[in-house]
Design goal:
Metallopeptidase family protein, Zincin_1_sf, globular, single chain, 3 strands, Zincin-like
Length: 120
């Protein structure tokens, strides 16, 4: 058993959620008008059956444009990202890059316009 104040108390899922929330806050401070209307979510794995129009589905994240009263959404898939990034720093960078790439995709911008450090 671990106490709530001990480092091992946080699960990998909880730490991943914290990383996503920290990146959303950081991007929200830099681009409040872009980030405010978007909903962000984390799922464990991508859907097993991609939609018919996805020729090459992205297994790490996905974005959904706003439509019919439903806000735009960005979904990150935790397990594929954790599998691809062996260290905590690499995972933080992967989360940042995925969020920035999907936000840029939603707004038709280049990721470098949203975050100049994207991809570094």
């Amino acid at each position: 058993m671990f106490g709530t104040r001990l480092p091992r108390y946080r699960t990998r899922t909880g730490m991943f959620d914290d990383m996503v929330a920290a990146q959303v806050r950081r991007l929200g401070q830099a681009w409040p008008e872009l980030i405010r209307p978007i909903q962000f979510a984390v799922e464990d794995v991508p859907p097993s059956d991609p939609t018919p129009w996805q020729t090459e589905p992205n297994m790490t994240s996905q974005c959904f444009p706003a439509s019919h009263g439903i806000p735009a959404r960005v979904v990150l898939y935790r397990m594929p990202l954790q599998t691809e990034a062996p260290s905590k720093l690499e995972l933080q960078l992967a989360v940042r890059d995925e969020l920035v790439a999907r936000i840029a995709e939603l707004y038709g911008r280049r990721p470098e316009e949203i975050d100049p450090d994207w991809g570094l």
